[in-house]
Amino acid sequence: MDELRTRAETFHAAVRDALGRIHFDELTARKQLLDAQSSDPDFWADPDTAQPVVKEQAALDKRLQPWHSLQQSAQEIIELLELQDESLSDEIASQLQTAQTAFAALKEELKFSGPYDERDAIISLHAGAGGTDAQDWTAMLLRMYVRWAEQNDYSVTMVEESPGEEAGLKSATLEIAGVFAYGKLKGEHGVHRLVRLSPFNAESRETSFAKLEVMPKIDAPEDIDIDEKDLKIDVYRSGGHGGQSVNTTDSAVRITHIPTGIVVAIQNERSQLQNRETALTILRSRLAQLQLEQHAEKVSELKGPNEQAAWGNQIRSYVLHPYKQVKDLRTGYTSSDPDDVLAGNLNPFIAAYLDSILGN
């Protein structure tokens, strides 16, 4: 019984520590607040406001329920031990084993304890040094992340695309939505380098760069406080698709955050109001990411981003010639099958990064 008690107390402490790491009490309080909102008789009077609440409520319930059950099981085991009844030892041992099995399955979530890890992700890709090859590389990366999302049951929404002059993309922005989307993708943030025989330059070996920004989706204004006087908002004519005569309304919006110099431009053939809201969401998301990188407590403390998509800044190299290899330069994780990686098999790289930041 003493050995069983020691195991149970160790387990109880581990569960308590895990609950703290996932901010269980704060998430529970948030869920209770949403429950109170949704029980209001006038809740559905404004469906546009109600639907995000219901979505967040369901996501929190799904996340919290197994942890709540585990917390209850750990407490019940301690209470049974306090009865000091030897005849209960087999029952307690069985309950402890069941709870430990459930805990082992939930431990993966402990990798996602960052302040925004549970959020959807906004990904922006920008062609760097390398001309047309870099623009083609940017399009290849876009396909890679879309395929990864589809293979892992995440939804993808294209926000903005700027086509290259000859091929590929100058830039693109997309939203990837699902459980811990940002937590899983945050390690992809940085410069990605490609070495290959160029399809655009007489089969010569070329090195291309593309910069990937991964941001937590921040669509609630209260999450990131932006002073209105720090914004410069320009409205201009959207280019549209299919020629200059298409979509000639002044619906495109460019927002500049003056203190950091961050510029977000959206011209996705929506209304000016929709483009403005999308641009503000992406701006908040970029500021949140910058805040994490610079360990700043307030938006007013932020400095502008300065990482260039060029030599010396890459986080990962993809080599297609003269040999085949993908290597993450932070973790050392390597794959000898770049075609598989470019087809969306990023999970080993994601796992290696998450393990590295946890010190595993």
Shape verdict: globular
Strand content is: 15-25%
Number of strands: 11
Helix and strand sequence: HHHHEHEEHEEEEEHEEEHH
Spatial gap, N to C terminus: 33 Å
Identify the strand order in the major beta sheet: 2-3-1-5-4-9-10-11
Uncertain regions spanning at least 5 consecutive residues: 241-247
The overall pLDDT average reads 88
Count of runs of 4 or more consecutive helical residues: 9
What Rg do the Cα atoms give?
Answer: 24 Å
Task: Specify the helix fraction band.
Answer: 40-55%
Would you tell me the structural class of the helices and strands? alpha+beta
Sheet with the most strands? Answer: 8 strands, mixed
Give your account of this protein's structure.
By secondary structure, the protein is of the alpha+beta class. It is built from nine helices and eleven strands. It has helices at residues 2-21, 24-38, 47-82, 89-106, 131-151, 181-185, 272-294, 338-342, 347-357, and strands at residues 121-127, 155-163, 169-177, 190-197, 205-216, 231-236, 252-257, 262-266, 314-319, 325-328, 334-335. Strands 2-3-1-5-4-9-10-11 form an eight-stranded mixed β-sheet. The protein has a three-stranded antiparallel β-sheet with strand order 6-7-8, covered by helices on one side. A hairpin with a 5-residue loop joins strand 2 and strand 3 (169-177). Helix 1 runs antiparallel to helix 3 and helix 3 packs antiparallel against helix 4. The longest helix is centred in the N-terminal third of the chain and has 36 residues, at 47-82. The radius of gyration is 24 Å and the shape is globular.
